[in-house]
Amino acid sequence: MAIEVGNVFEGRVTGVKPFGAFVALPEGRVGMVHISEVSNEFVQDIAAVLHDGDIVKVQVINIAPDGKIAL
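^ that's the sequence the OP posted. Answer follows.
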């Protein structure tokens, strides 16, 4: 399945940084969930919510011209 805006995927968290989390997607691609997109509630510490190896459901919200995928 091609990765397009609006697609929903199940992925694995591959890294957590103070600003967001990186998630492995199909086709060997990686997207990033910004901390502001993690929850409808305010999240001060993303590491308290997401951890390396977690399986998460994500939606593609943007694909930048340089290929970066926002989830």
